[in-house]
Design goal:
Layout lengths: L1 E7 L8 H14 L2 E7 L7 H18 L5 E6 L4 H4 L5 E6 L3 H5 L2 H11 L4 E4 L2 H9 L7 E3 L23 E8 L5 H4 L7 E8 L9 E3 L8 H4 L4 E4 L12 H5 L6 H9 L3 E4 L4 H8 L2 E4 L13 H15 L3 H23 L1
Parallel strand pairs: 1-2, 1-3, 3-4, 4-5, 5-6, 7-8, 7-10, 8-9, 10-11, 11-12
């Protein structure tokens, strides 16, 4: 078995973390051979680097995409169809659907065409699965990850204690420059402080928004401080629910959710987001429609939600969700192969 990945490695950038963790799990627990196409960031800007990368990729494909090996592919990859034209047993591990995220029909058509050639597809959640089924992808080949794992060594969690409704510290991690709502928040309407972690270029006049710095992804769960982890994109409310950023949250499971879970911190998410179902299922946080709704959250059951999320933390730190879906697929694949041999 082979695991194929493509990413740009930057030490303080959490972008590759999900892919790196899946690689580690598949190599560690399934003895997969790891093959990575490293991006430098210059391929899209410089014609010479782009040409060199194409040559490297062509040689890579000739060498590795042959025979009946099971190929786990961390999707998306650039030029997916040409890269894997010789691979017969492709399993797509979906991290993003760029066509859906960007609302770009051309990219969407290419992605659907490629995914249709895969033997199995692993998606984030039921909403993403339904989207692919609506695009005529066979229901039987789609499996649900449910939650990205977050390998780290967080093993100490604060004890249950009373939480002050008027002194809530909310955490937000990620690329802060893309978080539109940060510039919209009015300190006079906030009964909470917002602790930020990640990369940023902008400054904040709002005194209740506090920048805490950026850390290595593996260290982040042990560094973040606060009572609630916020998963949010776009405006502070639902005025942009059909725009790209907010609309995409109706289908994806953001990786920052896994970071908060690994840290053992209950979460706050948009009610119409796909992950609201997961938050309710495991009882690990609160759903809201407007960020100012944080002011009115009833925290009487906070400690119960914290207990639940600590249980889930142990799973994501050890690769439980990746292994569960991979085992399911490999068992089905084995039965299919046995059936073909008997035929």
């Amino acid at each position: 078995m082979i695991i194929i990945s493509q990413y740009n490695t930057t030490l303080l950038n959490a972008g590759p973390k999900a892919k790196l963790d899946i690689e580690k799990i598949l190599v560690r627990d399934y003895q997969c051979k790891k093959h990575t196409l490293i991006l430098s960031g210059k391929e899209e800007k410089d014609k010479i680097h782009k040409f060199i990368y194409k040559i490297k990729k062509a040689l890579f494909c000739i060498r590795f995409f042959r025979g009946r090996d099971i190929i786990f592919m961390q999707f998306p990859l650039t030029n997916e169809i040409s890269v894997t034209k010789n691979a017969k047993n492709k399993i797509a591990l979906v991290h993003d659907l760029e066509g859906l995220r960007r609302k770009n029909k051309e990219i969407e058509d290419k992605e659907i065409k490629f995914l249709d050639t895969c033997k199995f597809i692993v998606v984030h959640n039921e909403k993403m699965k339904n989207y692919l089924v609506s695009k005529n992808i066979q229901n039987e080949k789609i499996y649900i990850l449910e939650l990205f794992d977050y390998l780290c060594c967080k093993d100490e969690f604060s004890q249950n204690s009373a939480i002050d409704q008027n002194n809530i510290n909310v955490i937000y991690t990620g690329n802060l420059d893309k978080a539109t709502f940060l510039k919209q928040l009015d300190s006079n309407k906030m009964n909470f402080c917002l602790n930020l972690y990640g990369s940023k270029n902008m400054e904040f006049e709002n005194k209740k928004i506090i920048y805490k710095g950026k850390f290595l992804p593996d260290d982040l769960p042990s560094k973040i401080e606060g009572n609630l982890g916020l998963v949010w994109d776009g405006n502070i409310d639902e005025t942009d629910e059909n725009d790209q950023l907010k609309n995409y949250t109706k289908y994806n499971t953001p990786h920052k959710l896994s970071c908060y879970i690994a840290a053992g911190i209950p979460v706050v998410v948009w009610e119409k987001s796909a992950i609201s179902d997961l938050v309710k299922k495991y009882d690990i946080g609160y759903v809201i429609n407007n960020i100012y709704d944080i002011n009115d959250i009833n925290l009487i059951d906070y400690n119960k939600k914290k207990e639940n999320i600590i249980k889930l933390s142990k799973k994501v730190q050890n690769g439980y969700f990746t292994k569960r879906v991979v085992n399911e697929i490999l068992n089905i694949y084995k039965k299919m192969e046995e059936h073909n041999i008997n035929d």
